[in-house]
Amino acid sequence: MTRALRQHCPEYLMEAACLGTFMISSGVFTALLEYPNSPVRHAIPNDFVRLALNGLAMGLTAIGIIYSPWGARSGAHMNPAVTWTFFRLGKVKPWDAVFYPIFQTLGGVAGVLLVKAVLGSIFTDAPVTYVVTVPGKAGVVTAFFAETAIACGMMLVVLFMTNTPKLARFTGLCGGTLVILYITFEAPLSGMSINPARTVASALPSG
Predict the structure, then answer these.
(1) Within 10 Å of residue 175's Cβ, how many Cβ atoms?
(2) CA end-to-end span of the chain
């Protein structure tokens, strides 16, 4: 265990940095778009337009991380669901399947705490509320099935792209595009997580 941790520590730290960066971006853009006293919020009164812009921001963030040196080093899973799916397919080693999710979660929590330290109540109070992912007005059952569907859709796209040599290099673009679409159209149902580490990263600091 100790040997595996030492050998792959750079990749684990990159996973932490990737999700941490994503959470920082999520916190900052959500505050800009949703904090009641934000000038951006006042300039764009339409809820759907702001949600779509948030989706665009997070999709571009995901794409940037995936194609960054950090993402290239670790594979830019950023998500235990991705890591464990690749483990099930024999593409990820057992110790990586253990430590990737741990570091993803730690990095996500660190990102949320950093935004909290900088923005304070702007980030912690409603409506930004630590950018938690919670069920929408349709309820928990709808949120559960919605998350199941979008997670399945994301993994189908990732697996198809990565197993098609001519398309593999575009996997990040397709994944980021799905993030844009999911946040824009699915977020009202479940908060749009598709990522246990991302949800826990907001849930733990927010209580």
Answers:
(1) 21
(2) 31
Per-residue pLDDT reduced to its tens digit, 115-132 = 999 999 999 999 999 999
Radius of gyration of the chain (CA): 17
What residues contact residue 207 under an 8 Å CB cut-off, 6+ apart? none
User: Mind listing the pLDDT tens digit for each residue in 26-40?
Assistant: 999 999 999 999 999
Evaluate whether 183 touches 55 at the Cβ level (below 8 Å): yes
Q: pTM (2 decimals)?
A: 0.92
Write phi, then psi, for 34 (nearest 5 degrees): -120, -20
Is 23 within 8 Å of 204 (Cβ atoms)? no
The tokens of 21 are what?
């960066």
> Taking Cα atoms as reference points, which of 61, 76, 50, 75 lies closest to residue 176?
61
Cβ-Cβ contacts under 8 Å for 85 (sequence gap 6 or more): 155, 159
